[in-house]
Design goal:
This protein is an alpha+beta fold. The protein is 20% helix and 35% strand. The protein starts with a helix and ends in a 6-residue tail after the last strand.
Length: 99
């Protein structure tokens, strides 16, 4: 990785980390795609958009994939860089239950 790519990576990590650490409001969504994968998203408001800061998927084969500022991408996928729009995206809201 060259210096420009390393700098861009560091800025991306810092952005998502800051959103996660300073969020006062969190939204949770889920979606099941046509391949039977179950997707879960945690998003926070930023600049009039809902930015995904955590994402998990359970694949049809049972594999768990997780992404956040601590693990942006791997050989199987990456943390989405697109904001969520519940009015347009095929997601439904949900709330985690308190223990």
């Amino acid at each position: 990785m060259d210096d420009d790519a390393r700098r861009a990576w560091s800025q991306t990590v810092a952005y998502f980390r800051s959103l996660d650490e300073h969020a006062t409001r969190r939204h949770h969504f889920r979606h099941t795609d046509e391949d039977g994968n179950h997707w879960y998203f945690e998003a926070v408001p930023d600049r009039d958009e809902l930015v995904v800061i955590k994402q998990a998927a359970v694949t049809g084969s049972g594999r768990l994939l997780r992404y956040s500022w601590q693990h942006l991408e791997d050989a199987h996928g990456f943390l989405t860089d697109q904001p969520l729009d519940p009015a347009e995206d095929p997601v439904e809201g949900w709330r985690r239950r308190s223990p």
